[in-house]
Amino acid sequence: MIDLQNRTAVLATMHQKEQAIAPILQQELNLNVLVPNDFNTDVFGTFTRDIKRPADQIETAKLKIHKALELTGETIGIASEGSFYPYPSFPLISCDREIIVLIDLENNLELIAEVVSTDTNHSYQSISNVEQAIEFASKIGFPEHALIVSEKQNPTPEDKFFKGITTIEQLSDHVQYLLSLSSKGIVHLETDMRAMFNPTRMKIIEQATYELVKKFKNKCPNCSYPGFDVMKRKSGLLCSLCHLPTSMIKAEISQCQNCNYSEEKLFPNGITTADPTYCNYCNP
């Protein structure tokens, strides 16, 4: 039986994510959270895109964890990564994909939790004057949510940009300054998606942390190892009209990462037949 009680986990962050993560892990798992001093997560990528991620979200989170464990000598590490992109079903709406990873070296345990939410103020706009900047700010929850002003939409480390803007005075000064440098009379404005400057994002990180706790508490029926979770989904739910297979989910297979025990659950969504709308034969 794996027990995290009274152990210490190092949280690889410099953006105050412990505000969302630490209380939940302390209350639910009795796990103490430590934030390393002077841990620079910007080397693993920035939202301003001047420093690219070295890998995808999950692998980048793992890189953060292993670096934090190396620096502190602890054996449990936690990191989260966020990404913002058009929601697949509604491309005009942005969504926030937050993942959180826990690695326990002592027990060879790795847990990954994820939340995808359209509850985000992620937005950007090219502007040519201060009035446009203030109008944009009024739409994104400013000043509780901070802004970034940059010379270019995709700046390089050599380009000028300003993060963490939380007052009208800062916004006006930075916009006017960058406009004075712009040959086209345009600068780029966007929401600052760093956790400590974006309360909406912090709430999604909190939700992802609860998902992580849920995964830890979901034990394997065979060996009681944490993280018994869905590893594969099978399509093929039969159409209610013609009874041919559709692309809708018919079953989920959960598997233990320790003993490889697996279980198949039919009709995981509580639906035993598919609506003909989703049938390629009835609705080609």
Give a quick set of tags describing it.
5 helices, 284 residues, single chain, 12 strands, 3 domains, alpha+beta, 5-stranded mixed sheet
| Beginning-to-end CA distance, first to last residue | 51 Å
Shape category: flat
- Assign the CATH architecture of the largest domain: Alpha-Beta Complex
Strand content: 25-35%
Record the strand order, biggest sheet: 2-1-3-4-5
What does this structure look like?
With 284 residues, the protein is α+β, with helices and mostly antiparallel strands. Helix 1 packs parallel to helix 5. It has 3 domains: 8-120 and 196-217, Alpha-Beta Complex (Maf protein); 124-192; 229-278, no CATH class. Strand 1 (8-11), helix 1 and strand 2 (32-34) form a beta-alpha-beta unit. Helix content is 25%, strand content 28%. The chain has a 5-stranded mixed β-sheet. The protein has a 4-stranded antiparallel β-sheet with strand order 6-9-7-8, with helices on one face. A 3-stranded antiparallel β-sheet has the order 10-11-12, with no helix packed on it.
How would you summarize this macromolecular structure in one to three sentences?
The protein has 284 residues and is α+β, with helices and mostly antiparallel strands. It contains five helices and twelve strands. Strand 4 (90-104) and strand 5 form a beta hairpin.
Write the layout of secondary structure elements.
Elements: E1 8-11, H1 18-29, E2 32-34, H2 57-72, E3 76-87, E4 90-104, E5 109-117, E6 124-127, H3 130-139, E7 147-150, E8 161-165, H4 168-181, E9 187-191, H5 199-217, E10 229-235, E11 249-255, E12 262-266
Parallel strand pairs: 1-2, 1-3
Antiparallel strand pairs: 3-4, 4-5, 6-9, 7-8, 7-9, 10-11, 11-12
